[in-house]
Design goal:
The protein is an alpha/beta fold. Helices cover 41% and strands 15% of the residues. It contains 14 helices and eleven strands. The strands form two sheets. Strands 1-9-8-6-5-4-3-2 form an eight-stranded parallel beta sheet. The structure holds flavin mononucleotide. The site of flavin mononucleotide (FMN) has 31 residues, from strand 3, strand 7 and helix 9.
C-alpha cells in the first residue's frame, strides 16, 4: 500500500475534487462506494448545509470520505468545528495558507493534504506541517494560481524539493493520466471535470454535454492578472469576461453558478472545467469511471514493466 492509500484508507488512491455545490453527498458517496475518496466541498460557504451533507454521507456509505476546507471562503471557524465534531478523518485545504488551522486539525488526528500550484507553496505547506499535497496543475478546472505550471512539470519539481506524498490533480480523466502522474512521482490522483460529467453528478445535462462536446482547446483561463484565476469552458459569457479588462468579481466567486450548474443556463455564470474535458466523450457512472481508470492504469504499468524487463522502449 502506498502512502496516499494509507492516509486515505480507501481501496484506490483516487480522490474526487472538491467542487462548490457539486461535491455533495450524492456524488461523494458514489465515489466512496466505488472505492475512491469522496470529498464534500465547503467553497459554497454554506456551513449549515455542509454539516448536513456530512451527516448524509454517513447514512449513504460506511466507506471513508473527506471534507475540503476552502480557506478563502471561511468567514469563521464553523466549518472547521463541523469537521472536528463529525470526526472526519481526511481533510484537504485549498485557496489559502493551511498554517492557521493545521494545529487544531492535527490535535484531532486528522490527515491534512494541502492544494499547491507551485514548488514554493509546496515547501510552505510542508513547513506548516501538512501530511501530503494535492498538486494542482494549470490544466485543471476551477481556481488556479495566476502563474500557470503544467502538472508533469509541477510533480517533478515538487518531488525534487520535498518528500511529502503527492496526489496529482489537473487534466486527469483516465488510467493514462494516472500512469503518467505516477511516473512523475504521484501516489494518488484527484479528478474534478471527469466526475462533473458522471451519471451521479448533480449538474444539469447541458453542463455535462458541454464537457462531452468540448475539445482540448475548449477551456479558457480567466482573470489571468488577478486572483483568483479560473479555468472554465469557453462560452459567450467566459469569452466576454476574458476580453474585458475588469473581471466580474461576483461571477469569479460563484455568482450565478447555481443557475448554470443546476438550471442549465450555460450563460448565467462560468462553467468551471479542466482541459481534460477534451478527452471525455461519454457520461459514465462513477463506478465505471473508477474501474476503467484502475484497469487502464494497470494495463499501462504492465506493458511498461514488461518493456523495461526486456530493455525495450
Ligand atoms: C466545476 C468545478 C468546480 C470546482 N470548485 C472548486 C472549489 O470549490 N474548491 C476547490 O478547491 N477547487 C475547486 N475546483 C478545482 C478542483 O478541486 C480540482 O483541482 C480540479 O478539478 C482538478 O482538475 P480537473 O478538473 O482537470 O480534474 C473545481 C473544479 C471544477 C471542475
Amino acid at each position: 500500500m502506498n502512502r496516499v492509500q494509507q492516509h486515505l484508507g480507501t481501496q484506490y488512491p483516487i480522490v474526487q475534487s472538491p467542487m462548490s455545490w457539486i461535491a455533495r453527498s450524492p456524488l461523494a458517496s458514489a465515489v466512496s462506494e466505488a472505492g475512491g475518496m469522496g470529498i464534500i466541498e465547503s467553497g459554497s460557504g454554506e456551513s449549515e448545509q455542509i454539516a448536513a451533507e456530512i451527516v448524509k454521507m454517513r447514512e449513504l456509505t460506511d466507506k471513508p470520505f473527506g471534507v475540503n476546507l476552502a480557506l478563502l471562503f471561511m468567514r469563521d471557524e464553523s466549518m472547521l468545528d463541523n469537521v472536528i465534531e463529525a470526526e472526519v478523518k481526511f481533510v484537504t485545504t485549498s485557496a489559502g495558507s493551511p498554517r492557521k488551522y493545521i494545529d487544531r486539525l492535527k490535535e484531532h488526528d486528522i490527515i491534512v493534504y494541502h492544494a499547491v500550484p507551485t514548488a514554493e507553496f509546496a515547501l510552505k505547506a510542508a513547513d506548516a506541517g501538512v501530511d501530503g499535497l494535492i498538486v494542482e496543475g494549470a490544466e485543471g478546472g476551477g481556481f488556479k494560481n495566476p502563474e500557470e505550471v503544467a502538472l508533469p512539470v509541477l510533480l517533478q519539481m515538487i518531488r525534487d524539493v520535498c518528500d511529502l506524498p503527492m496526489i496529482a490533480a489537473g487534466g486527469i480523466v483516465d488510467g493514462r493520466g494516472m500512469a503518467a502522474a505516477f511516473a512523475a512521482g504521484a501516489e494518488g490522483i484527484q479528478m474534478g471535470t471527469r466526475f462533473v460529467s458522471s451519471v451521479e453528478s448533480p449538474v444539469h445535462d447541458n453542463f455535462k454535454n458541454a464537457i462531452i462536446n468540448s475539445s482540448e482547446t475548449g477551456t479558457i483561463y480567466l482573470n489571468r492578472k488577478g486572483s483568483p484565476g479560473l479555468r472554465a469552458l469557453k462560452t459567450e459569457h467566459s469569452l466576454a469576461m476574458a476580453e474585458s479588462e475588469e473581471s466580474d468579481r461576483a461571477v469569479l466567486f460563484g455568482g450565478g453558478a447555481k443557475d448554470l450548474y443546476f438550471g442549465g443556463d450555460m450563460e448565467s455564470s462560468i462553467a468551471l472545467s479542466g482541459q481534460g474535458a477534451g478527452m471525455i466523450t461519454s457520461i459514465k457512472t462513477v463506478k465505471d469511471i473508477i474501474d476503467d481508470t484502475v484497469s487502464e492504469y494497470f494495463e499501462i504499468c504492465a506493458d511498461l514493466g514488461a518493456r523495461a524487463q526486456a530493455r525495450r522502449f
